[in-house]
């Protein structure tokens, strides 16, 4: 205790020395001090503003999140999912690169795909063959030509290496027709190899066959054979019902929408969109976003309990079906006069539910923001998922007359229901705060990542701006009125140290004088 108090017991001497030091300082020192502080804070402000304009975030905040938060154990991670509708690299992504000179895929995204392929196609076998070893290396190669050469090397070792044909179909084929031919070759090779193996099919073989059949169905869809694609997807879902994590039903939904088989779409939604228990909630002006002619005080809306997260495809397809039923005759002015019907209420609720799940989608559907090619992986509720959904489903919304108009009138009203989306959700759990960082890794640099909730100027830009202005003002005042500012500084420090002096006096009056004298000598 005495050791700890040795410094506080000498506080009076320290205060006396500090007062003498401050009294000896001239006004020139204060001018130099405030001027230097203003210059440094101004440079920090300029850098922060440049970094914010270029990258959309504060450099100081980013460093704090990246380095300090892990030390404090506050890291928030978002799970990335395989995009069920991802394009073909050789036939689609590469063609975009040839035309624009831009890379549509990030290294992080392609690396995740390489890990997926390596795990699904070559990771679950007791005895790894020579061609499997080559393919494991091929998936890890960063250079596309090196991957293609490794695939041909694996085929030379074993002409029935299905994984090698899959890589060639994905990477080398420049048209969908050529990719389909290679996938069919991979399917034949996979089945023949499966027959000569043990009766028990390994997980690697199942994953490979499911992947091939799914990509064949997607080839049929892209080539216009939609009914054939739907049949292949249904057969695949019946044959492997436990592989729901692959989200094959999302491929099926998109194909059925193209066929305009809305009854079948509703049947798929009934199976994969979980049942929700509803309770009545008094309506608020949040129902409509940009249409102000509706009387909100006379309507009740059904609000569901929080349910498990879905996907943008599930939520927005459900909203599309309900909006399609009323959108053709919907008018905000008419709804204001007569009130919303039950069907219109259901449509508005479905749109609010979809927008709360992923608030980035409406800007792409309403063409308020330009689309890019979707990435191979998506983040649920993030901008990457919104890009992937809108890329394939915008045409279906345009086909439903008036659906986009209803969306335009109602989608912004969702944000009034959830004024603090990061703290508390309405129909879903609070919106995750890690989506922006993950989306920046998944989406190319030329795309402006959508941020929700929209951020104002970062705190540190405002702080450095205030600090720079304050210190510059002090420097100017000290230069113009040195004596007055000197009196002000002395009065400020005197006021600042008054509580400490009061505390020291109380300590002296409380302790015996001899005891205090002995302790100060330690």
From TrEMBL:
InterPro entries: ST7 (IPR007311), TPR-like_helical_dom_sf (IPR011990). CDD domains: ST7. GO terms for cellular component: membrane. It is found in: Membrane. It holds the Pfam family ST7. It comes from the Eukaryota. Keywords: Membrane, Transmembrane, Transmembrane helix. It is a multi-pass membrane protein. The chain crosses the membrane at residues 29-52, 457-478, 484-504. Its main location: membrane. The keyword Transmembrane applies. Belongs to the ST7 family. This is Suppression of tumorigenicity 7 like. It comes from Oncorhynchus kisutch.
């Amino acid at each position: 205790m005495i050791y700890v108090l040795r410094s506080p017991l000498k506080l009076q001497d320290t205060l006396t020395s500090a007062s003498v030091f401050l009294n000896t300082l001239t006004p020139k020192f204060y001018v130099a001090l405030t001027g230097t502080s203003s210059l440094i804070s101004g440079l920090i402000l300029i850098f922060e503003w440049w970094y914010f304009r270029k990258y959309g975030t504060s450099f100081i905040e980013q460093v704090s999140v990246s380095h300090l938060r892990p030390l404090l154990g506050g890291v928030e991670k978002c799970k990335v999912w395989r995009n069920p509708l991802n394009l073909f690299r050789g036939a689609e992504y590469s063609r975009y690169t040839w035309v624009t000179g831009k890379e549509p895929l990030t290294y992080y995204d392609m690396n995740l795909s390489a890990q997926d392929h390596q795990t699904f196609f070559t990771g679950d076998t007791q005895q790894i063959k020579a061609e499997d070893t080559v393919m494991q290396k091929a998936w890890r190669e960063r250079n596309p030509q090196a991957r293609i050469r490794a695939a041909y090397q694996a085929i030379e070792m074993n002409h029935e290496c299905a994984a090698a044909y899959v890589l060639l179909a994905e990477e080398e084929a420049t048209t969908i027709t050529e990719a389909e031919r290679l996938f069919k070759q991979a399917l034949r090779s996979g089945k023949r190899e499966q027959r000569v193996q043990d009766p028990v099919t390994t997980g690697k073989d199942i994953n490979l066959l499911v992947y091939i059949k799914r990509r064949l169905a997607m080839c049929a869809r892209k080539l216009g054979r939609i009914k054939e694609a739907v049949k292949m997807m249904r057969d695949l879902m019946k044959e492997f019902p436990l592989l729901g994590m692959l989200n094959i039903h999302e491929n099926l939904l998109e194909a059925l929408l193209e066929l305009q088989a809305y009854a079948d779409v509703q049947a798929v939604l009934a199976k994969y969109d979980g049942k929700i228990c509803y309770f009545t909630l008094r309506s608020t002006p949040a129902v409509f976003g940009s249409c102000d002619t509706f009387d909100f005080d006379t309507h009740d809306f059904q609000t569901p309990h929080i349910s498990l997260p879905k996907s943008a495809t599930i939520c927005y397809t459900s909203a599309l079906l309900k909006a399609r039923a009323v959108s053709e005759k919907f008018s905000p002015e008419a709804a204001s006069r007569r009130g919303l019907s039950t069907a219109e209420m259901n449509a508005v609720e479905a749109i609010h539910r979809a927008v709360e799940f992923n608030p980035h989608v409406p800007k792409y559907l309403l063409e308020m923001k330009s689309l890019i090619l979707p990435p191979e992986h998506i983040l649920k509720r993030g901008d990457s998922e919104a890009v992937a959904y809108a890329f394939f489903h915008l045409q279906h919304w345009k086909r439903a007359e008036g659906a986009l108009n209803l969306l335009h009138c109602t989608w912004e009203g969702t944000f009034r229901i959830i004024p603090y989306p990061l703290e508390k959700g309405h129909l879903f759990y609070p919106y995750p705060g890690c989506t922006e960082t993950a989306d920046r890794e998944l989406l190319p640099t030329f795309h402006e990542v959508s941020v929700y909730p929209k951020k104002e100027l970062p705190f540190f830009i405002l702080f450095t701006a205030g600090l720079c202005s304050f210190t510059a003002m002090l420097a100017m005042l000290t230069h113009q009125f040195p004596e007055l500012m000197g009196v002000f500084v002395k009065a400020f420090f005197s006021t600042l140290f008054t509580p400490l002096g009061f505390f020291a006096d109380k300590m002296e009056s409380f302790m015996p004088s001899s005891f205090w004298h002995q302790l100060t000598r330690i």
